């Protein structure tokens, strides 16, 4: 029951609407070369065929760089391309079903936005938790209100799993998720929308370290 | 390499927006009792968790009735609930990938809306073709213009696979798809929006037979 090793330090979540016409795989490659340690393909609007093609292009740039690719929500897309795992939210496929379909070696991540959701998390099924929003965010239209410091500390302490903070994180505020005990920071617009995604990744790594 | 037997005579495609507040599984059960021979769960807007729950409820009414359930587009949902197959369009997962992920016993359907799409159809991979639109339809916002009789006849003749017509079919016009050689009729609103889905299914069966 060996799971693939992964590093949550700088977790890049893609957003096709934010890359300003640049090829997504070029933005991702630059971000990884700047220090991104894990990449999640998130696209809630693309047709399945296009999503599979995008995932395959991302694997082409991530495999040589040794950085894992997880797919948001879509186990079918992950299976089609042989991605490293899937990240689900509370309204997506149950994490136990994701684990059953992907097998023991896959990376399975789960978003928690409230302390009460921890009770249903099975550490034998889930590899890491996405915790947030850490700050207010405009990237995710349906995002909840930001969590306060005490709540994040309690989630980190209670979870027994690696945690990555998400929501409104940028190089100017990345010290707070670190101080709260999170193992990494997940970013969307701070890298995807940056004029220089590699430099943005380097700044984020430095700010969190 | 035995595939599950299936009957395309009256193929019900679900649309959650058309059932007028009734439980989808009740509409489907009534339609099957009235003569629907195969059911496709199609819902392009639901969260994956809700889609899986709906699929499980449909299987609960379909298994005792011996009618297969195929899922539109989503191999992940089909795998999660153990549905009988998946139907894909030209922008969805490639049919060969669907077959690889679901295995030899699954039902794999593919939509064709133009004669030129037949060249890429592999009869070792695909079990049946959805052909249309047969008539103009308001149910599918992005539907193409209806195919003419000669085109449908050529697709039916060339395909070497069972075919089901779709698009604007109701009890008043179901004779034409029969005359064109199609093996069955697929309906959405003619059953889902009917005040009595069972009676609607009986009328459609009679009109096509």
UniProtKB/TrEMBL annotation, chains A, B:
* Thiamine phosphate synthase/TenI domain location: 10-191
Which cofactors does it use? Mg(2+)
The pathway is: Cofactor biosynthesis; thiamine diphosphate biosynthesis; thiamine phosphate from 4-amino-2-methyl-5-diphosphomethylpyrimidine and 4-methyl-5-(2-phosphoethyl)-thiazole: step 1/1
Q: Name one GO cellular component term.
A: cytoplasm
Cited InterPro entries: Aldolase_TIM, ThiamineP_synth_sf, ThiamineP_synth_TenI, TMP_synthase
Positions of 4-amino-2-methyl-5-(diphosphooxymethyl)pyrimidine binding? 40-44, 72, 111, 140
List, in alphabetical order, the Gene Ontology terms for molecular function in this entry: magnesium ion binding; thiamine-phosphate diphosphorylase activity
Binding-site residues for 2-[(2R,5Z)-2-carboxy-4-methylthiazol-5(2H)-ylidene]ethyl phosphate, renumbered to this chain: 137-139, 168, 188-189
Q: Which UniProt keywords apply?
A: Magnesium, Metal-binding, Thiamine biosynthesis, Transferase
Top EC group: transferase
Q: Name one GO biological process term.
A: thiamine biosynthetic process
Extract the SUPFAM superfamilies matched here: Thiamin phosphate synthase
What Gene3D superfamilies does this protein map onto?
Aldolase class I
Which reaction is catalysed here? 4-methyl-5-(2-phosphooxyethyl)-thiazole + 4-amino-2-methyl-5-(diphosphooxymethyl)pyrimidine + H(+) = thiamine phosphate + diphosphate; 2-[(2R,5Z)-2-carboxy-4-methylthiazol-5(2H)-ylidene]ethyl phosphate + 4-amino-2-methyl-5-(diphosphooxymethyl)pyrimidine + 2 H(+) = thiamine phosphate + CO2 + diphosphate; 2-(2-carboxy-4-methylthiazol-5-yl)ethyl phosphate + 4-amino-2-methyl-5-(diphosphooxymethyl)pyrimidine + 2 H(+) = thiamine phosphate + CO2 + diphosphate
Write down the superkingdom of origin.
Bacteria
Q: What is its EC number?
A: 2.5.1.3
Q: What does the note under cofactor report?
A: Binds 1 Mg(2+) ion per subunit.
Positions that bind Mg(2+): 73, 92
Under the heading HAMAP family, the entry gives: TMP_synthase
The family classification in the record reads: Belongs to the thiamine-phosphate synthase family.
Any idea what job this protein has?
Condenses 4-methyl-5-(beta-hydroxyethyl)thiazole monophosphate (THZ-P) and 2-methyl-4-amino-5-hydroxymethyl pyrimidine pyrophosphate (HMP-PP) to form thiamine monophosphate (TMP).
Name of protein: Thiamine-phosphate synthase
User: Which organism does this record belong to?
Assistant: Thalassobaculum fulvum
Organism phylogeny: Bacteria, Pseudomonadati, Pseudomonadota, Alphaproteobacteria, Rhodospirillales
Q: Tell me the gene name.
A: thiE-2
């Amino acid at each position: 029951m060996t799971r693939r090793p992964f590093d949550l330090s700088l977790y890049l979540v893609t957003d096709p609407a934010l890359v300003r016409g640049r090829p997504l795989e070029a933005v991702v490659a630059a971000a990884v070369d700047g220090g991104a340690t894990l990449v999640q393909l998130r696209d809630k609007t693309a047709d399945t065929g296009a999503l599979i093609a995008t995932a395959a292009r991302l694997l082409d740039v991530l495999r040589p760089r040794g950085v894992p690719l997880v797919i948001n929500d879509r186990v079918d897309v992950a299976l089609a391309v042989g991605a490293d795992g899937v990240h689900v939210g509370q309204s997506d496929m149950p994490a136990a079903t994701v684990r059953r379909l992907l097998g023991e070696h896959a990376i399975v991540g789960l978003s928690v936005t409230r302390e009460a959701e921890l009770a249903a998390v099975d550490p034998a099924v889930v590899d890491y938790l996405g915790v947030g929003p850490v700050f207010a965010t405009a990237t995710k239209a349906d995002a909840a209100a930001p969590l306060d410091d005490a709540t994040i500390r309690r989630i980190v302490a209670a979870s027994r799993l690696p945690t990555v903070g998400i929501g409104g994180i940028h190089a100017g505020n990345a010290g707070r998720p670190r101080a709260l005990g999170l193992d990494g920071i997940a970013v969307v617009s701070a890298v995807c929308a940056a004029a220089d995604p590699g430099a943005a990744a380097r700044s984020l790594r430095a700010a969190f370290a």
